[in-house]
Amino acid sequence: MKAYNETWVHNKRLMEYVARWQRQGMLDAAKLAQIQAKFPVGFRESNGFIEIGLFVFSIVATSGSYFLLATLLGQLFNHDVFYHVFNIGSGLAVGFLAGRLINSRNYYRSGVDNALVIAAVALVTAGVVGLLPNNLPTWQYCLIILPLVLMGVWYYSDLLLTMAAFATLITALFDFFLDFPAGKTGLPFVLMAISAGLYGMARRYENRDHLVYWRDNFILLGWLSLTQLLISCNYFAVRQLHYWTLDKRPAEAPEIALAPLFWLLTTAVPIVLLYLGIRQKERPLLIMGAIGWGLALATWRYYYPVFSLEFYLISNGILLALTAIFLIRYLSVPRNGFTDRPDEDSPKELFLNAEALSTIQATSGHPGSKEDMQFGGGDFGGGGSGERY
Fold first, then answer.
1. Closest CA to 199 of 228, 235, 231
2. Closest among 163, 287, 177 to 241, alpha carbons compared
3. In the predicted model, is pLDDT for residue 274 greater than 60?
């Protein structure tokens, strides 16, 4: 049992791809309506600006109500334990309100429910941590918080909670390894290994049909993992993090251990990401590889400046513009699975549901439709693409 109707979530994902097919002329409006009737989606629809406004309004309203009630009751029960229990009770009440609104108003990531979910998990987490002893290390607090946040991710599939869970895990690892003598040296390698493992897990499960409820969470986890991977292997980031952990900080960040290895990783990891992105035709790897290579060049320039910053900015801007013009013209014709044409994601998710595929095939054979339209023959990866288009 989840907060949102899982059937509607699955149908919503299918309809997104069916709508793209309709825009490509593979289905006319009548057949699209038949498929929509076969796979109904009852969630309330709104645009992004309204959702942002409702999110902010709901956060303000919830915060105002919480502080007002806490102030009134605090005068009667002026004790630390009361505030912690009050936080837990308030979080459960807000969670109950979120569930009622989701069921009665058919909200799905509409801003109101996102705000209430974040507030509920934050209040319960704050209350639980407040009841714990004050002398625990940070990583122990994080390990206690993490299951609570993951429960919120499992029940609500909220993206902000996914980011919170990822940040909690990284904070726990960071604080835990700093307690060891060799922790500062080994921490970047641990974070790189964790990031690579989480990315592999996200890519493996993001397109599983029975996990479509959390598909966006897996995609976000993949992006967060690649970001953390680039940070963990970057020489500048490792050196600065080492500097911030020193008890007595000199005027300038000192040299770190294994500096040549981190210089190698700073340049090699982005190249590996670009290679894998080209080989597997995965957009996240290509984007993060390009960003990582840019960070590598910026890191090199920071420690070994040859020309002025203005010269670097101008020359790099011209180089990037010329590269973009060349790629646009070169890829105007598809080459080895790459193209500059507007991208419509692969519809393979439709093939994950046999009922949807049979319905679409049954409703596609009509005058004016594309004859001999064949399904299948491609791979799909949610954040980008698979090995074949």
1. 228
2. 177
3. yes
Of 111, 99, 129, residue with least CA distance to 54: 111
Largest Cα span, the chain: 78
Query: Is there a contact between 226 and 273 (Cβ–Cβ < 8 Å)?
Result: yes
Q: How many domains is the chain built from? A: 1
Q: pLDDT tens digits for 196-221?
A: 999 999 999 988 888 999 999 999 99
pLDDT digits (tens, 9 = 90+) for 85-119: 999 999 999 999 999 999 999 999 999 999 999 99
330: helix, strand or coil: helix
* Structural domain boundaries enclosing 326: 307-341
The number of beta carbons lying within 10 Å of the beta carbon of residue 251 is 4
d(CA 389, CA 383): 14
Identify whether 337 is part of a domain.
Answer: yes
What's the predicted TM-score (pTM) here? 0.85
* Mean pLDDT (the chain, rounded): 85
Q: Residue 265 contacts by C-beta under 8 Å, 6 or more apart in sequence?
A: 192, 233, 234, 235
User: d(Cα 146, Cα 134) in Å, to the nearest integer?
Assistant: 18
